[in-house]
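Q: Here's a chain of 360 amino acids. Please give me its 3D structure as tokens.
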Amino acid sequence: MAAKRNGRNLMICFGLMTLPACVFVRPSSPVVPGVSDPVPQFRPNPSATHVSDFASLVRVPGSRISTTAAATSPPPANPSATSPAVESSPPASSSVVQNQLSGYSAAFDRENAFPIGTEAPSGAWPPRGLPALLPLAEAAAPEPPLLAAVRAYVNNQPEQAVAHLKALPPPNQELMLQLIPAVVLASQLDWQRCGPTELGMLAEQLREPADRLASRGPLILDRVCFCRRVKNFGRYDPLPPDHRFQRGALAELYVEVRNAPSVATIDPQQGSGYVTRLVCTLQVVDARGSVVPIIDRNLNRVATLTETKVDFTRSPIRDYFLLFRFPVPDRSGNYAVTIKVHDPAGGREVSQTLPNLRVQ
């Protein structure tokens, strides 16, 4: 009953060798009649190591320690020095020790109180901010959807791969569903022994995504040259670079365009198919940089020759060729020809200049 009236109990236990040594102390700040040694008010020193000093008094398991000596004895200067004497007299009564410990606890709380979650002051014990001092384990980063999808395909689980890719935007999902199976197949092929069937399957899986990317890639002029005769795509007879045209002669300029647009359409007369539409311009300048007029097919003199190419095909195409025919200037000299190709549907454009138009 005395323990309940006077407050909380504190039990401090220290292990020595293999036998525990426990000291039970009960607090009260006033001096109690009948106790030979009055207990001073406990004011802990933050720079002192109270627990280790107190524990150093225990030398023999089962020994009883004087609470007065534990509270007032300074720590030894040399750890190997002789420790304070161990008292073997019986402890004070239960109520007396209870009163003493209450005073110690209240004094210690006032001296060592600091907010939970902040770093403990130097020397403070027990460290109530310990949770803030411990490093928090970083949460494992989630696996990227692409890596998870590839892993599922390698494990022959395409349904799970599709589920992982749903985290990506729809256009990315479609492209990855075409590329990932091809990449996995390419990693599993024996290139020394595989036949045309396996390679054909891989080429087919790569063709469609390549076509989709090419339709949005930049326009590229692969071959631009003056020719003697042009029959079709890739079928032409180029003129030598130092060729000289006669005044008033007709020049033929061959141009190959890569990544040309091929948009799906339905023609009222021809049905479903694809249409390639390009707007092409050609301009001739002399050695001084002045624009030289050109006679177009309608026999008009224009500063820039402009033509719109529209071709309907049953299958999509990515490589396209242009053929410009125009009369060379009627004055001798060196000229430069600049061509420009524009894709009105995709907003793409490319240009190139040939500085070797020579007229004699």
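Q: Can you summarize the key feature?
A: The chain has three domains: 2-133, 145-214, 220-359.
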